[in-house]
Amino acid sequence: MQVDGVVNDWPNRWRHPDVYMDRGGPFAPESFIGGDELKEFIHSEDCKILVVGAGGLGCELLKNLALMGFKSIDVIDMDTIDVSNLNRQFLFRYKDVGKSKAEVAAEFIMKRVPGCVVTPYFGKIQDKDEEYYSQFAIIICGLDSVEARRWMNATVLSMYDEDDPSTLKPIVDGGTEGFKGQSRVIIPKSTACYECSLDMQTKPVTFPICTIANTPRMPEHCIQYASILLWPKEYPTTKIDGDDPDHINWLFNEASKRAEEYGIRGVTRTLTMGVVKNIIPAIASTNAIVAAATANEAFKLATSCAATVNNYMMYVGDEGLYTYTFPLEKKADCPVCGTESVKLAIPATWKLHELMESLLERQGTQMKKPSLACGDRSLYMQGPPPLEAATRPNLEKLVSELVKEGDTVVVTDSGLPISLKLVIHFE
Amino acid sequence: MASQEGPSKEQKYDRQLRLWQAHGQRALENANILVVNACATATETLKNLVLPGIGSFTILDDKVADGADVGNNFFLDHTAIGQSRGKYATELLRELNPDVDGFHVDESPSRVIASEPSFFDKFTLVIATQLSEADVKALAAICWERGIPFLHVRSYGFVGYLRLAVKEHAIVETHPESILDLRLDCPFKELTEYADSFNLSTLENTDFAHVPYVVILLQALQAWRASNGKLPSTTPERNAFKAMVKSMERPGVEDENFQEAMKSVFRACSATVIPGNVASILNEAKAMTITPETSSFWILACATAEFAESEKSLPLAGVVPDMKSDTESFVKLQTIYRDRSHQDAARVHAIAASLAAASGATAPSMDETARFCKNARLLKVIRTSSIESELSEPCPKASEIGQMAQDLDSCIPFYLLLRGVDAFYAEHMRYPGYHLEEVETDIGLLKKSCAGVLTRMGLAVSTLTDDLIHETVRAGASELHTMASFMGGVCSQEVIKLITSQYVPLNNTFLYNGIKSVGGSFDL
């Protein structure tokens, strides 16, 4: 059978997914219309799917989608292949180390699954605009970063115009950590969005600077001493690159010296890398589970052959085997999909910098570099430098000098396409 | 960047070594597993075992691949149509990881199961899929008799099923979030001496703020005992003890260490005991006769039982969690706990060595002993029911199953449906609804098969609704790739836990409803 170049579906090729597209059943939603038209739709460019991330989840997702009959898929990833990816990112081989993940993954899928067209983009999600994202029927995220997810979520939700159903793009999102993972469906305006549930994220472990500087006890404290305090002194102009073995060696040596000085055991190269790069353990099996659950939702969304998950499923595999499926609730004051503004009561004695610090602490928003404005007045701007300098004196002023009771302060963060509206009340 | 000789295993496997360490990886690399039938669920399972570097795998499969097989299987390509399914799958799976050996045996699984049970002897673990109920039963019995863990996995439409049958699986490292074994209620001599060396009233404020909470609680308990004679046990006593700790604080001094102490008051008041399930493992070990075949787990359990008998406690874990303290006090405290745990482990090791020597068994290594002692409070032995007992009639768990089936969200009806499907297959030699034109008639036929199964199990025929039966016929034995990949992921994860003897595997059945994306684990 000659398949190269020409797209030939061999007899029975799609037997397994076709069963569900040919037949209705008691559990198919009322909107389900089975038959040839549906099958053609799944194979067509009208049912184009975007996979964000070509890593552990992305590789699995591309395979799953291609074998379920989706033939038009885009994949975006800004990363290149690292040796430590090979234990799970099965579309990559040792010879591919250093190459673009998106490009190698796309090529592999097209070779193994003839007729499937995967278009890679080796770059950032932020490089693409609304017009690009509007061409997809479903957007699937297999990402390892909270920021990228927030950006994708906010972008896709902002594209939705309630008067134009074609602008509604469901997001299916997956994530893993060790033996645990989760998969969820986000339907703009009808389910909770990613931002609604931001406070579910576990905060990365941080150690107080005074412990690191003065009373180290754990090997992690010694490693952070090397990376947070020593490195900037020694190399003020170079940022640490966790993938550069010379950087890791230097940090490991310095951390070992400090550990020896204080009699602390357990500084190893592996731990040094883990702390510096904030490595999360990742294995093939969990990736497979989460990506399959995620692609399964995409198939049900695209075909309506069965209901979709309502709306969050978590999988815990380290102690026995446990799944929990539940609906995450929408937040009325969500900065992305909510309709209400956030009411914030603060002490009347607070200065602007104290308000800023409380925003940085806020688990539900996770701002990194917030800029604040009230109406058309800038209260504090992170940039550009002249504006920053002009607004800096405000940080020492009382908030009550700058805004009135009940005023709305708009908080923006350059890294996120979100603005948070805070209605200020003084206690 | 890429050199000819390939990457080091430390680099390549870094992200998994952080979960199961070098000794877990070694166990994986020494394993030799068998997979029966190379359908998508099987190859997806294998993918997740070949990638992390399992020693070797064998596929037992004599099927000739057809268009549908290639359509849903990533480890077959269109050139495999009309060729041996197992052979092609083995090649494409091997290509994933040069560290792994892969073999194909081109024989009928039914025939091998029926006539060559010794074929299975050499495998660490056996995984089967797409077998008839009779073959599953026979293969499970072969594995059970040989003590080989057996997993039966299937993806049927939107339903996923995994059953583990293992006679005995012992786990030392369950990997809880933290191990806590501080012995505050029964401090050993060195620990008491260390706590006594602090004179809280004379310390400078900075030093006072850096006294480890363990020392604070030990001193408080000592004072309490001096006036009350025993641990605070009733609620009023505990509250009084709490107030006493609180009164030791120094006003105006940073109190992070006291906050930590307050959080641990409850723990300090509870007696260090041997947890019930560990006690029964130790009792079992005591009653055991050690032979050359006894595993190091049981030799160590036996040694630990002897240790516990004389010491009235388990060997010390030797782990101190981070706490507010200056470096010197903390390191000293850590050293005290560690030294004691080393002494305990050395004693257990000596007992184990003499037990092994007396019976011709291999003595556990010091590393192994140290891990065992560190985790002694967390030991776990899993014994699942056998598939033979599960399939016996009437079903021994019928009343529980009937109860669970009442719950609308329960996955248990899918278990009953799959048994109905197997009965249908045994009666008609085909799967219900395989062809579109059979759907209508097969609904009635499957209903009959299900009624038969339910009756034989001892359950009401009404346990399964018509809608569920109709939906099962709709599935037409399709193996959706997403479901195959999901169940392959689930199955391989359990295999890794079993082979590394780390983390806790399923006991014993997992069902997944891919329509609602709801799963459930059951002891059947």
Structure characterization notes:
The complex is a heterodimer of chains A (427) and B (524). Chain A is α/β, with parallel strands linked by helices and 427 residues long. Chain A has three domains: 15-199 and 282-326, Rossmann fold (3-Layer(aba) Sandwich), CATH 3.40.50.720; 209-277, Arc Repressor Mutant, subunit A, CATH 1.10.10; 342-426, Ubiquitin-like 2 activating enzyme e1b. Chain:  B, domain 3 (Structural Genomics Hypothetical 15.5 Kd Protein In mrcA-pckA Intergenic Region, Chain A, Roll). Chain A has 14 helices and 13 strands. In chain A, strand 12 (408-413) and strand 13 form a beta hairpin. In chain A, helix 8 (219-234) packs across helix 9. Chain A is globular and about 70 Å long. Chain A starts with 14 loop residues before the first helix and ends with a strand. Chain B has 524 residues and is an alpha/beta fold. Chain B has four domains: 10-173 and 480-522, NAD(P)-binding Rossmann-like Domain (Rossmann fold, 3-Layer(aba) Sandwich), CATH 3.40.50; 189-267, no CATH class; 276-382, no CATH class; 390-475, no CATH class. Helices cover 51% and strands 9% of the residues of chain B. Chain B has 23 helices and ten strands. Chain B has helices at 9-12, 14-29, 40-50, 67-71, 85-94, 109-115, 133-146, 189-196, 205-208, 213-228, 235-247, 256-263, 265-269, 276-286, 296-311, 327-359, 366-374, 387-390, 398-405, 412-428, 439-457, 466-475, 481-500, and strands at residues 32-36, 56-60, 101-105, 125-128, 150-156, 159-165, 169-171, 380-382, 509-513, 518-522. In chain B, the strands form two sheets. An eight-stranded mixed β-sheet of chain B has the order 3-2-1-4-5-6-9-10, with helices on both faces. Chain B has a two-stranded antiparallel ribbon with strand order 7-8. In chain B, strand 4, helix 7 and strand 5 (150-156) form a beta-alpha-beta unit. In chain B, helix 3 (40-50) packs across helix 23 and helix 10 (213-228) packs across helix 12. The radius of gyration of chain B is 29 Å and the shape is elongated. The mean pLDDT of chain B is 96. Classes of the chains: A alpha/beta (427), B alpha/beta (524). Chain A: The active site is at residue 210. Chain A: It catalyses: ATP + [NEDD8 protein] + [E1 NEDD8-activating enzyme]-L-cysteine = AMP + diphosphate + [E1 NEDD8-activating enzyme]-S-[NEDD8 protein]-yl-L-cysteine. Chain A: Keywords: ATP-binding, Ligase, Nucleotide-binding, Ubl conjugation pathway.
